[in-house]
Specification:
Strand content: under 5%
Order of helices and strands: HHHHHHHEEEHHHHHH
Strand order of the largest sheet: 1-2-3
Shape: globular
Number of helices: 13
Helix content: 40-55%
Oligomer: single chain
Number of domains: 2
Number of strands: 3
Structural class: mainly alpha
Distance between the termini: 70 Å
CATH class of the largest domain: Mainly Alpha
Largest sheet: 3 strands, antiparallel
Radius of gyration: 23 Å
CATH topology of the largest domain: hpI Integrase, Chain A
């Protein structure tokens, strides 16, 4: 089946990350189900059939609620990729998805904490237990390197580098792309304390694993547990607010604070592991609050 062949191509030849591959599989499985319900072969589809599929995505069905513009755009991208592949492989002579246009998706500014809020979050972790020392090191690493939660939990001991203490980490990003990121003194200190004083206690409950961050059973910390660490710290740091921070909040804060501090956008791109600088440029957007602050401070007649 052409869909499975295309997914194999994405996995093997393009090295697509597991989560991205799973999203492609979901989107294309939904396309296949739509076409099958109308007795249309995937390779015999007409442009009008794909228009009807997109309409169904936006309006929904009893089995599927309507998709947002962003989710629709992602699904259309998967469909267009499938049929471009089919043409390239000689399975089709014309591309039925060529005229499909993705809906305009508003670019939202990534949510970032202020430097004071980051300090509150990191200082809220109690480090008098092995789990507390682990959580502190985990959060310091996320903010100190801009790593994704999945990258942090995927770290092995051999990924920590430095002749005298930890001064860099090797992160495995999307598409299995490696990058080396410096580690600041706060994160290095928290990691060192965790590795010396806490990790051995956690490791004693397991059968031995090279993972840096361990759970209480001595196994590698899961991504879901990594997210839970962020939420738990937020609950302690901001007890009067119903704060539900995204898993990427410290990564976003890392990028925003670097750019505010004068870092070159290309350097930030490399540190984040973005394939395109266009993605990194989201962090250079000026918020309305910042515009107003600068206006009031700078304009001679802004104040009465």
């Amino acid at each position: 089946m052409v869909i499975q062949t295309y997914l194999n191509h994405l996995a093997v030849e393009r090295g697509l990350a597991k989560n991205s591959l799973a999203a492609y599989r979901r989107d294309l499985t939904r396309l296949a189900a739509f076409l099958e319900s109308r007795s249309i072969d995937v390779l015999a589809v007409e442009p009008g059939d794909l228009d009807q599929f997109v309409l169904e995505l936006r309006t929904g069905t009893p089995a599927h609620p309507p998709l947002s513009a962003a989710s629709t755009a992602r699904t259309i991208a998967a469909v267009r990729g499938l049929y471009r592949f089919a043409v390239t492989e000689g399975l089709l002579t014309t591309d039925p998805a060529e005229a499909l246009h993705r809906p305009q998706v508003a670019q939202r500014l990534p949510k970032a904490l202020s430097t004071q809020q980051v300090s509150q979050l990191l200082d809220a972790v109690e480090t008098d237990t092995p789990v507390g020392m682990r959580d502190k090191a985990f959060l310091e690493l996320l903010y100190g390197t801009g790593s994704r939660v999945s990258e942090a939990v995927g770290l092995d001991i051999d990924d920590l580098g430095g002749d005298e203490g930890i001064d860099a980490v090797r992160l495995l990003g999307k598409g299995d792309k490696e990058r080396i990121v410096p580690v600041g003194s706060y994160a290095a200190s928290a990691l060192d304390q965790y590795l010396v004083r806490a990790r051995p206690a956690l490791a004693s409950a397991g059968r031995g694993t090279p993972a840096v961050f361990l759970n209480t059973r001595g196994n590698r910390l899961s991504r879901q547990s990594g997210w839970a660490i962020i939420q738990a710290a937020a609950g302690r740091a901001f007890p009067d607010d119903e704060v539900h921070l995204s898993p990427h909040v410290l990564r976003h804060s890392f990028a925003t604070h670097l750019l505010q501090g004068g870092a070159d956008i290309r350097v930030v791109q490399e540190l984040l592991g973005h394939a395109s600088v266009t993605t990194t440029q989201l962090y250079t957007k000026v918020t309305p609050e910042h515009l107003r602050e600068v206006y009031i401070t700078a304009h001679p007649r802004a104040r009465g």
